[in-house]
Design a protein that fits this description.
By secondary structure, this protein is an alpha+beta fold. Strands 1, 2, 3, 4, 5, 6, 7, 8 and 9 form a 9-stranded mixed β-sheet that branches. The chain has one domain: 2,3-Dihydroxybiphenyl 1,2-Dioxygenase, domain 1 (Roll), CATH 3.10.180. The chain contains 3 helices and 9 strands. The chain is globular, with a radius of gyration of 15 Å. The structure holds cobalt (II) ion (CO). The site of cobalt (II) ion (CO) has 6 residues, from strand 1 and strand 6.
């Protein structure tokens, strides 16, 4: 059901410093910051030949990233995103297997303008999983 790895997301305590490190130390192609108020984050995408890295920084007072950074002050891997062809079919299949979908269970529009859902990390070996319909 899942397809390509779309991105790995890393929560960072300093977005400018992280972007600069990927640009100059790792020599990566680093995009511009984008605010995503619906998700409570500012993101920067780093384009790699085979996938992307998403740098996440809290936006607003109720950002879901803030709690993660409180527990992991140096930052850390926050989620991984797999591509699916049909997000509603994927969701219904996962629910039937007993997996928990976060939030209302309805897809939201993600950073690439495509529908996304998040799956409970406790159901996936401690890893928050994002599904993106491509
Ligand atoms: Co993501």
């Amino acid at each position: 059901m899942i397809g390509r790895l779309n991105h790995v997301a890393i929560a960072v305590p300093d977005l400018d410093a992280a972007a600069e490190q990927y640009r100059s130390a790792l020599g990566a192609q680093v995009g511009a910051p984008q605010d995503e108020p619906d998700h409570g984050v500012t993101v920067i995408f780093i384009e790699l030949p085979n996938t992307k890295v998403e740098l996440l920084y809290p936006l607003g007072d109720a950002s879901p990233i803030q709690g993660f950074l409180d527990k992991n002050p140096a930052g850390g891997i926050h989620h991984i995103c797999y591509e699916v062809d049909d997000i509603l079919a994927a969701r219904d299949h996962l629910l039937a297997t007993g997996a928990r979908v976060l939030g209302s269970g309805e897809p939201k529009i993600g950073a690439h303008g495509k529908p996304v859902l998040f799956l409970h990390p406790k159901d996936f070996n401690g890893c928050l999983v994002e599904l993106e319909q491509v």
